[in-house]
Amino acid sequence: MxxxxxxxxxxxxxxxxxxxDACQIMSELASNAARFCLSAKMRAWISxxxxxxxxxxxxDHPGRPVLQSPGQFxxxxxxxxxxxxxxxxxxxxxxxxAGKIVWARIAIDERSMRAAASSAGCPIVGDLxxxxxxxxxxxxx
Length: 141
Known about the structure:
Blueprint: H1 2-13, H2 19-36, E1 42-49, E2 52-59, H3 79-86, E3 91-96, E4 99-107, H4 110-119
Antiparallel strand pairs: 1-2, 2-4, 3-4
Helix pairs in contact: 1-2, 2-3
């Protein structure tokens, strides 16, 4: 479902060239949220921002994401490693009163984003929203 959200958004914006990387990021973020959330509630969204594409997932688990060190044959623990590899615009998380947001960005220059959106017939009206998030990368303790 989150992959569909990402693909349809990127097609609408004319940025479908980034679909593979964005879907990989969203899949990892969403599967971690689904695995660790306390309830059945999680939220996912994608935004065009001035520095590219931002993918976010919220869940109600109070714990911070932890970067794992999986063994060669481990079947789990590579999610955040993959997110960091594909997130050319950075990634991190922010604690909220109820849970946390984990986010990742794919860097795209604004001129390319505007040209793609215009050619797809979905021009950007006005300024793209500026979004600052603290760069608290997940690390193991």
